[in-house]
Design brief:
Length: about 425
């Protein structure tokens, strides 16, 4: 049983490039990097003082999420498959239901102002100062490796071909027409093995360089690693109980010509299909939040807002509420996970349909939670994400991309959308 941190200290440090620091310490077990876009905050940590893994026990997952000892200086990864088990039953394991690590030492980079702060936590002031010293040592470390040229993976293998995906889309459209559900997010998967000299960190560095995203994350834990380039917020929780979700539904590809690129945004905003797809998930997330929020507090703050990223345009909506007294992170996650934007509506039926077309998803479409203090949490949706496992012959990877299927979905168009979403990961793995 670990105890909550009782002391916290900060120390201003000379500015360093966060990518250089992550390269220097990224081979450590537990190495963590959280990057927010091109000019946002960056958090780097390593050497956790506590780790935890839970499989098959939802009550234990909720208990850990609500444990004050895990509410500060921690990250927690919820795999998609643990959240769907009540709807789909037992399925083969891919990743643990929950992986968690707590870190006493952090480096906090504010890239807009080029300020760097070490944060140390501990059971007392002495431990907090020791954590500060550790973080300062990281800030002075020299990069251990340079950028690798050429492909990082020898192959980019589709686990099923495009014809199979289009057939799955057509089946879901037929199920919708029969009244079984309104929407389901159906994905394709690709897998391969890194070249002998490459590491998951190399993949992350390329993604951050070429297609920065608001919720980019690198995490190394034992023989597993996670690389996420996600644009999507699942939940934020603030002291006082305000909770917010920002589901993404509706996608168009980016174009190199500015006029053509703007035309894609306008087409997305004008698309009745994409707006309907987004609205279904807005209603679903309102319903999910109402389970744990003061009923009158749940509201839609913004609807169908276009956001542009390196490879795609998206429609994003914002829903907020205020948690009822006695409801915490564990209860909020139990009520809302997995995210509605990557399941469908009604959620339980959509998860059953997804399970009929896909193998277990693992961390993809799960959530990565950053815990920065009691009553405070930021959780991303793990889309644009690769899962790595180290075996005797090297690092194996798997990644997925999906599309929300509705009544008027066209299988060819949905397949093209999926390829647009996976394009940045493909380039990071297969190009220089």
């Amino acid at each position: 049983m670990i105890r909550p941190y009782a002391a916290r200290r900060e120390r201003a440090l000379p500015w360093r490039d966060p990518l250089e620091i992550l390269q220097a310490i990224g081979a450590r077990d537990g190495a963590l990097g959280l990057f927010s876009g091109t000019a946002g905050r960056v958090l780097i940590a390593a050497d956790p003082d506590a780790i935890r893994q839970i499989d098959g026990d939802a009550a234990q997952v909720t208990a850990l999420l609500d444990d004050p000892a895990w509410a500060e200086g921690a990250v927690q990864l919820l795999a998609y498959d643990g959240g769907v088990r009540p709807a789909t039953g037992l399925r083969p394991k891919v990743w643990p239901d929950l992986m968690a690590a707590r870190y006493p030492a952090w480096l906090v980079f504010e890239t807009a102002t080029r300020t760097l702060t070490a944060v140390g936590r501990g059971e007392d002031a002495v431990e907090a100062e020791q954590a500060l010293d550790l973080a300062e040592d990281w800030s002075q470390a020299a990069s251990a490796r340079g950028a690798i040229e050429g492909p990082l993976s020898a192959t980019f293998n589709a686990e099923a071909d495009e014809t199979a995906y289009r057939t799955a889309v057509a089946d879901v459209v037929a199920r919708i027409a029969a009244g079984e559900l309104f929407q389901a997010n159906i994905a394709r998967a690709w897998s391969g093995k890194l070249t002998w000299e490459a590491d998951p960190l190399d993949v992350f560095l390329r993604l951050v360089r070429d297609s920065p995203a608001p919720y980019a994350a690198f995490w190394r834990r034992g023989e597993r690693a996670l690389v996420s380039n996600s644009p999507e917020l699942f939940l934020t929780l603030e002291p006082g109980g305000r909770i917010e979700t920002r589901p993404i539904k509706g996608t168009r590809p980016r174009r190199t010509d500015p006029v053509a690129d703007q035309a894609e945004v306008e087409a997305l905003l004008a698309s009745a299909k994409d707006r309907a797809e987004n609205l279904m998930i807005v209603d679903l997330m309102r319903n999910d939040l109402s389970r744990v929020c003061v009923p009158s507090s749940v509201r839609v703050e913004r609807l169908f807002h276009p956001e542009s990223y390196a490879n795609v345009h998206h429609l994003v909506s914002t829903i907020s509420g205020r948690l009822r007294p006695g409801q915490g992170v564990g209860q909020a996650m139990a009520a809302t996970f997995p995210p509605g934007s990557i399941t469908g509506a009604p959620k339980h039926q959509a998860m059953k349909v997804i399970a009929g077309h896909e193998p277990p998803r693992g961390p993809w479409c799960g959530s990565l939670l950053l815990r920065e203090g009691e009553g405070r949490m930021t959780a991303s949706v793990l889309i644009r994400t690769l899962a790595f496992e180290q075996r005797e012959e090297g690092w194996h990877w798997r990644t997925q991309a999906g599309a929300g299927i509705v009544a008027d979905s066209d299988p060819a168009a949905e397949s093209a959308e999926v390829l647009s979403k996976i394009s940045a990961i493909r380039r990071a793995l297969m190009e220089s």
